[in-house]
Amino acid sequence: MFTDSASHLDDLAQFVLDSPTSFHAAHTVASRLTTAGFTQVDEKGAFPAGAGRFFVVRGGAVIAWRQPERFDDTTGLRVVGAHTDSPAFKVKPDVEFTACGWRQLAVEIYGGMLINSWLDRDLGIAGRLLSRDGATHLVRLAGVARVPQLAIHLDRGVNDGLKLDRQAHTQPVVGLETGVGVLEALAEQAGVAPEEVVGHDLFTFDSQAPARIGLGGELFASGRLDNLSSTHAGLAAVEDLGDGDDLVLFATFDHEEVGSETSTGAAGPFLADVLERIAAVAGLGVDGFKALIARGSCISADAGHLVHPNYPQHHDPRIELGPNAGPMLKVNANQRYATDAVGEALWVQACERAGIPHQRFVSNNAMPCGSTIGPITATRLGLTTVDVGIGLLSMHSARELCGADDPHHLSRALRVYLAG
């Protein structure tokens, strides 16, 4: 566990650099868990019995847990949930095309991105290739693509309102028609022939490195803070977790930005599968498993919205959510966030014991509210669930902004919660 926000932030910056896609994030999480003494479990084999620290990787998702030696009617259950994906351009099956002498990447929009924020940026391409022999290859090319804007000389009214066609105006340029192909470059990096590639999941990412900004370095700008800020905070909290008699899990899912309804998303069976198999190996039976769930709780950690100084009218007029004032508790009457009074008390006590500041978020009643994996987890498992997260400006932009201290605040609170 990092003892100060500066070292935590440096580690978060490196984590973002190492994790341009959900698949890279899962790989990075798995590597760090292994270093921290966790043992990887193959879902195709038996789950381990007895005390230990374990994890499972499924695509771009990871679930890690500390398992007690024995289970009884006093064994507690605590879960921290996050997600590894962020809005981006996803590469289509036919990777590229040519137009007017340019080579272009064929993409569609993944998640609810702020499209204009991706214009005129040096974009990388990263993800996984599947080769004919069944192997998975993680690949990345930094700074090879760009979605160029039309010059103002050719559209004099652009500053009166930019309108982007999702098909015509979002296809990145990656080179010249006569240059090397994208798939060929990625296959070369993976060490396979292009014709051996039989499948791919590829995304764009912003090549600009994370950085402290602000006159006093009090702010942090980075891509993928939604939601690598929570994934990293949960990972840092669980890496040095001590022994205990309760079952604690850290789960970071994929596909939250597109609804979570996949085998690796929070609406899929992944978390339930892992919990049920842990319970089965422990000999709990159906009644014992349901009792464990009834004693359990979950903190759903996902980024939230700071009050925007240029658009304060878009926020509840009686809240003042600011950077470096601690992570926020997210509340919504229509249960777009899963927080209730029980979860609120759980979170407030965790923050108090961690010695960190905390804030509360509610939406402006006239504005639609987003959602998280929190309500999904509560619905699927019946766990008491509370939604929290650090505040951002420019959420779903190619480059988001938070307070430099807030990621560390979140991790400290999650560490206290997991420790019980």
From TrEMBL:
Top EC group: hydrolase
Gene3D superfamilies (alphabetical): Aminopeptidase i, Domain 2 (2.30.250.10), Zn peptidases (3.40.630.10)
GO BP of this protein: proteolysis
UniProt record similarity statement: Belongs to the peptidase M18 family.
Domain of life, per lineage: Bacteria
GO CC entries: cytoplasm
InterPro entries per UniProt: Peptidase_M18, Peptidase_M18_dom2
Entry EC number(s): 3.4.11.-
Cofactor: Zn(2+)
The protein, known as: M18 family aminopeptidase
Entry keyword set: Aminopeptidase, Hydrolase, Metal-binding, Metalloprotease, Protease, Zinc
Sample GO molecular function, one term: metallopeptidase activity
